[in-house]
Amino acid sequence: NGIQFCDLPSRRNGPTARLRMHMFDRTCRTHGIEHRLTKPNHPWTNGQVERMNRTIKEATVKRYHYDSHDQLTRHLTDFLAAYNFGRRLKTLKGLTPYEFICRQWTSEPKNFSLKPIHQFRGLNT
């Protein structure tokens, strides 16, 4: 709900709010992403995001030194692929994130604009 991601609550509704949209909202809309806001004064709803950010930091910048931004980007891409396709999570009933998305797509395809398999990069790419 920070001002870097959305307008102040007093400016979210009104006659010009839809025309003047926040840049982050415009970017989300362009890419077909639904931008959901958390309830004000309920910081615990950010817990999953914060925990994932910590997991990524512990696996990358806190563990390794990178000589360039490209090195970090490559390592981050590899880590996320390994996590999404190999890490089984209790919160997803033992499924990997990719398996969970595929199962959701099978049961509720109307919620997706692309088939999840289209995002699969393949071997050594």
Task: Give a short synopsis of this structure.
The protein has helices at residues 23-30, 47-59, 69-86, 97-107. It is built from four helices and no strands.
Features:
single chain, 125 residues
Q: Which parts are unreliable, with pLDDT below 50 for 5 consecutive residues or more? A: none
Q: What characterizes the major β-sheet?
A: none
Tally of separate helices:
4
**Protein structure class:** mainly alpha
Order of helix and strand elements from N to C terminus: HHHH
Tally the beta strands. 0
Specify Rg, calculated over alpha carbons.
18 Å
Percent of residues in helical segments? Answer: 40-55%
> What distance separates the N and C termini?
36 Å
Categorize the overall geometry: globular
Mean pLDDT across every amino acid position: 82
β-strand amount:
under 5%
